[in-house]
Amino acid sequence: MSINNRHSTVFWVVIGIPVVAVVASMLLIFEAVRSKDPELPLEYGVEGRALDADYAAAARAQSAGVALTIDYVATDRLRVRATANDESMLPQVLNLRFTHTTQPVRDRHVALQRSERNLYVATFAPLERGRWLLQVDGQPVDGAAWMLRKRLHAPFDVVTIDRRHP
What we know:
- The chain contains two helices and eight strands, in the order ααββββββββ.
- With 166 residues, it is of the alpha+beta class.
- It folds into two domains: 37 residues; 118 residues, Immunoglobulin-like, CATH 2.60.40.
- It has an eight-stranded antiparallel β-sheet with strand order 7-6-3-4-5-2-1-8.
- Strand 6 and strand 7 form a beta hairpin.
- The longest helix has 32 residues.
- The mean pLDDT is 84.
């Protein structure tokens, strides 16, 4: 290989890399302009208000110091022990929603009635093995609704939900 030929190869490499970068940039700009992001859905405001309500309910639970311990007493019995800074924040009925992470047909809901001072009990078949999202809603008689959420793996014996164990 002669020196002139080698210089010519280096020249084309030095010129070629920036030319390829400029052409690729132009193609990306063309594609970005041609396929714009879709507009926000019409329900955007509704979804935003729902998220704000969820955040507010979670903040109320945290400020009230709501803590729950959920366990299976025996087969098909679910027991929840609840505590709060103010007893009036504990409702007569707790709503638990178990949402399967990948299979919506497995989602479960149970309403637990208050049986004692801080104890809620209901009949509930054990969850199938897997990952679940748990949401607990409470609507005190003289207060605004609160909500706690937690990710969990089933089967489980005891689950604690509070501000230290989200």
